[in-house]
Amino acid sequence: MHDAHDTPEQVIQLEANVDDADPRLWPGIIDAMLEAGALDCWLTPIIMKHGRPAVTVHALARLGEEIRLADRLLDLTGSLGVRYAPLHRRILTRRFEKIEVEGVEVAFKIATRSDGSVATVGPEFRDVQALAQKLGITEREALRRARDAYSS
């Protein structure tokens, strides 16, 4: 079965500790790393030497993309260095199914195990947000309606 994300089981994890970035920059940094080809990007709060609060920014890269993405991370964060190491991971196969919920198309991510059984089903949250906006309801209510629509 084809994976909707086409993500490899062998990846390179990049990490950089950053103690002087304006926190308002982080959403843009994460988006820029994903747009540059990172498979995933996330933050972990840490405490560095001398008790300084900081953030470790992590990104997953395809093999062969680590230098380009490390350079991008250096440019985006001003960090003085990026660590990277190979990782092996076990992933579920994912596909998307779109359904109409009260006039709004909502994509559902369906993850399956190697035997073909369904592990999880969930609506894409950006679509839930669009549903809430269009219907003038809370995101919580839109999430409930999307899940109900998928179940029926």
What does this structure look like?
With 152 residues, the chain is an alpha+beta fold. It is built from 4 helices and 7 strands; from the N terminus they run βαββαββββαα. A 4-stranded antiparallel sheet has the order 2-3-1-4, with helices on one face. The longest helix is centred in the last third of the chain and has 13 residues, at 139-151. It starts with 9 loop residues before the first strand and ends with a helix.
Judged by helices, strands and strand pairing, the structural class is alpha+beta
End-to-end distance, in Å? 25 Å
- Helix fraction bin: 25-40%
Average residue-wise pLDDT: 94
Adjacency order of strands in the biggest sheet: 2-3-1-4
Summarize the structure.
It is built from four helices and seven strands, in the order E-H-E-E-H-E-E-E-E-H-H. It has 152 residues and is of the alpha+beta class.
What does the secondary structure layout of this molecule look like, with pairings?
Layout lengths: L9 E9 L7 H10 L4 E8 L5 E10 L3 H12 L5 E6 L4 E9 L2 E9 L5 E6 L1 H11 L3 H13 L1
Antiparallel strand pairs: 1-3, 1-4, 2-3, 5-6, 6-7
